[in-house]
UniProtKB/TrEMBL annotation:
The keyword Transport applies. Residues 1-22 form the signal peptide. This is C4-dicarboxylate TRAP transporter substrate-binding protein. The keyword Transport applies. Belongs to the bacterial solute-binding protein 7 family. NCBIfam families: dctP, TRAP_S1. Pfam families: DctP (PF03480). It comes from the Bacteria.
Amino acid sequence: MKLRKVMALTLAGAMAAATLTACGGGADETTAAAAGADKETTAAAEDKETTAAAADSGSADAEVVLQVAFENSITEPVGEGWTKAQEIIKEKSGGKMAIEVYPDSQLGDKSSLIDSMLLGENVCTLADGAFYADYGVPDFGIVFGPFLFDNWDQCWTLIESDWYKEQCGKLEEKGLKIIASNWIYGERHTLTNVPVNTVEDLKGLKIRVPSNEIQSKGFDVLGATSTGMALGDVYQALQTKTIDGAENPLATLYGRKLHEVAKYLILDGHVKNFTTWVVSADWFNSLTEEQQTWLLETASEAGEYNNEVQQAAEADYLQKMKDEGVTVVEPSEEVLAGFKEKAQPFYEMDFGWTDGLYDTVRAAMGANE
């Protein structure tokens, strides 16, 4: 297979270059940050050994192998989740199916992996609604809108809804099959170099966001000036005050050492970032019904494991940030209401969405009950 041939040529070099990276979201969220890399040398060496074990999953004797590739480190919650998945699918299938795990962009970036899926390759990666909007399912983008969800339960209600299943069906028609949607990636918060206590404090601040329309406009509507930028450039941009802040889950903010150059964190949770795992629809349909069931059950059960790890990791990251001098604001319900009110015009913008989409999705997630 094409990817396996490429992997054989590049794996040694990629693993030698692997460094400890942390969570992010969107297509460019998990590029390695140069800043702080010297502090992660030991962790990177440990990652190298763990990665080798993850790739060597006993797949040689399996009838079906899925290569799960992502830009995160193997030691992050998503990496731990897929390591767990290797055990689960081996048990379910009696060794007939296997999962090989390739973190740290070893098999390429998200776009190249998706391109391989569209050619029918046996690869899997993580993506989100904003990304799927760019692949021809515009309504999917709304799940990355600011303050759409009031709590995580609404996320889980939504992914079981008819609306969500319809979007998955449309994506499958485009050649991509979602095999799990129950993985928590983290709540996205805002780290700045000046205090932010209310939404009004964001006015005029240059906040780094991933380079996509939904997230850019999602911050502009709050009064900030969104700045699309590669994650690896954010540390220096904060240090030189080219930007005033950045947003991401705690794992990314801490893992990229951004708190060293921006000392104010508001836990606004503007996006509840659940992520999905996607494979080639053609490849999935080539499996037997039994094999499909093994894979779907494995991905879901591994997601539950990821969520447990994620919850514990976020508490740890937050405490570390406090210990290292970050001023943390936990906004009141009144303050959060101000953020949500400011965000509402976002859902009236033209993203090519179906008429009445916001109300449809809010109903599907049970927000009106």
